[in-house]
Amino acid sequence: RGVKNLANRELRAAKTDLQDANDSWRNKKYKWSIIQAYYAMFHAARSAFTGDQSGKRFLEKGRTKTNNLSV
């Protein structure tokens, strides 16, 4: 139960950071966007390492999204 709560908390943080990174990118704040995207990956990885499969799916989904970003 504690591990699942930690995984869910990390996954929520990852989603928020990725949304913020996308917003920053659209506002041409590229350096800040990269930092936020890094934190999104960090939190998703922490979620994945707790054994929650949704963290692994989030990492895959995020990789696809970042491949579509353009300047």
Detailed description of the structure:
The model has no long low-confidence stretch (mean pLDDT 81). It is built from three helices and no strands. With 71 residues, it is an all-alpha fold. Helix 1 runs parallel beside helix 3 (53-67) and helix 2 runs antiparallel to helix 3. The radius of gyration is 12 Å and the shape is elongated. Helices cover 85% and strands 0% of the residues. The protein has helices at residues 2-26, 30-49, 53-67.
Chain-wise SSE layout:
Elements: H1 2-26, H2 30-49, H3 53-67
Helix pairs in contact: 1-2, 1-3, 2-3
Structure characteristics:
single chain, mainly alpha
Q: Unreliable segments (pLDDT under 50, ≥5 consecutive)?
A: none
How many individual β-strands? 0
* Secondary-structure element order, N to C: HHH
What overall form do the CA principal axes indicate? elongated
Q: Which radius of gyration do the C-alpha atoms yield?
A: 12 Å
Mean pLDDT: 81
Largest sheet geometry: none
Instruction: Report how far apart the termini are.
Output: 42 Å
Quickly count the helices.
Answer: 3
Strand content: under 5%
Q: Structural class per helix/strand content?
A: mainly alpha
What level of helicity do the residues show? over 70%
